[in-house]
Amino acid sequence: MFFSRLFRQSVIRGSIVDLRKRHHVYDEDSVSFDILLHDTDTVAGMCDLRFGYTWELYYAGNIGYRIHEPYRGHRYAYYACRLLLEQAYEQYGMNELYITCSPDNIASKKTIEKLGAVFVAEEDVPPAHWLYKRGETKKRIYKIFLP
Questions:
Q1: Does residue 140 fall inside a structural domain?
Q2: Could you read off the pLDDT of 111-137 as tens digits, one per residue?
Q3: In a domain, 84, yes or no
Q4: Rounded to the nearest 10 degrees, how much is the dihedral formed by the CA atoms of 56, 60, 64, 70?
Q5: Residue 141's domain is classified under what CATH number?
Q6: Quick one: which of 24, 43, 51, 135 has the fewest CB in 10 Å?
Q7: Cα(100)–Cα(108) distance, rounded to whole angstroms?
Q8: In this structure, is residue 85 part of a structural domain?
Q9: Domain of residue 136, residue span
Q10: How far apart are alpha carbons 105 and 19 in whole angstroms?
Q11: Considering the domain boundaries, does residue 37 fall inside one?
Q12: What angle do CA 40, 43, 47 make, to 5 degrees?
């Protein structure tokens, strides 16, 4: 579906970080990237973009990210998400998407709010969800409207 058209280029360049396509994750409707320090091969973390509006993505979000510990505190997640948001809108015509975080993840909450996301709710994750199975039982859910 989306994956066949997804990010024809293997590197998306930004001013602070670049995204390098890693591999296909979950299913055909998502893609994963390494977050690289701009113009280097230094991997600061990873992120992914998930397509669709399912109950699973309501809790997990259309965007996920993780910054490796030595690189935290430099807003790399924010810059990576900005690149993903541009691609989601320009390449795939997405007008809105969900982004979530655990309530105790203050850094992620700040990143999401800096992106301009609107708080929707704090909800219990259903026991059948894969997030719950890995110990994430509550999520703060935000919505981002594009462009």
A1: yes
A2: 999 999 999 999 999 999 999 999 999
A3: yes
A4: -140
A5: 3.40.630.30
A6: 135
A7: 9
A8: yes
A9: 11-145
A10: 23
A11: yes
A12: 120
* Six-digit token string for 75: 């807003």
What single-letter amino acid sits at 59? Answer: Y
Residue ranges in the chain modelled with pLDDT below 70: 1-9, 23-28
Joined tokens for residue 23:
């591999």
Tokens 């609107």, residue located? 118
If one counts the domains in the chain, the total is: 1
* DSSP tag of 49: E
Is this model's pTM higher than 0.85 or not?
Answer: yes
Q: For 77-123, give the DSSP string.
A: HHHHHHHHHHHHHHHH---EEEEEE-TT-HHHHHHHHHTTPEEEEEE
State CA 98 to chain mean position distance. 9
